[in-house]
Write a structure and sequence with these properties.
about 375 residues; mainly alpha; Growth Hormone, Chain: A; 16 helices
Amino acid sequence: MILFPLALVFYETIVYLAVDMYVPAMSSMRQDLQVSEYLVQLTITLWFLGSAALQLILGPISDYIGRRPVILCFCGLFIVSSVVCAITDNIYLMILARFCQGTAVCSVGVAGYAAIHELLEHKAAIKVLAWMGSITVMAPTLGPLLGSFVLEFGSWRDIFWILAGCSVLALLFLWRVMPESNQQIKYNKLNISKALQNYNIIIRNTNFVRYTIVAGCVFSGMIAWITAGPILIIEDLHYSPFAVGVVQVFVFGSFAIGTIIVRVLINKYSAQFTVRVGVTLVLLGGSFALILALYKPELLMGLLIALMCYAMGAALIFAPLNRLAMEAVPNINMGTKIAIFSCIFSIFGVISSILVDSSIISIATILFGVALVARVLYIRGATNV
């Protein structure tokens, strides 16, 4: 059973590297294609739009045709769109291809994670989701370094050729090891009206909404840092780009350590207890970040400690809440449930990326605010259950 999650996380990491490896190449691509900075920036924006565009559609579709066809088809689409990005000289075709690349995120978040939940029982699913998260979180840390390394010896087009080649390997790996987890395919019919009714049932479920909002709040804090943190370190705190890489290694390394702690805690304690510890750590990190922003905004080491605490807490939260949300609505098809969870999750990230700016007070305020909402919402909800 370990082979399928390994193949899925390999595919997921490649999909995320399509952003993180690409960022260092934006300047050289703009010069090569002789286009405006705005159009180059759209290649990032449309990727994110693609990553959030299809969850609610793919959920019912994967319930109807199965998880495996959705994953394999979108992996194929990712390969084709990566090749288009590598060979095109037309920025508008590039933007369209980047949108198609982004939709691969939907296939992983909906069909891929639905398969994990269907194939594994409660604690096993949490453990697998946790170690998968520990691998994919390395993409924003190592991606820019890998992209810069490729540019040292080649061009920005080579980045897309590498992504295409790796995704071919992922497709072959998934084709070989991914089982069809949806055993209700022959009983499910693609019914738009039924899908809308199911979505209505899900969003009326208090526990599902609570778990999803808590996870989304914590995720939005991570996105705020990923979006604005590098600019803060370089432009406001006047450190080198290398320092950004070092900080990100510690931050996301803490997240990876947190996923290991999840696998230990879940053997002895409940998922609810693990989340309770996580939201507490997140609030401590957010509070420390806000205090530093108000009184010692130039202290990068202090901010790093706060972010490490926040990231470790986030790791304790994501996998257990994902599973708890799925179990909160037992009589709805898994694809439909995971689709709305992923959609709300993405919306929180998009809102955060829009609201944050590169000042330390902006980042710290978001970290503290979302952490406070997450802890209060989770603790009060748990008390009322």
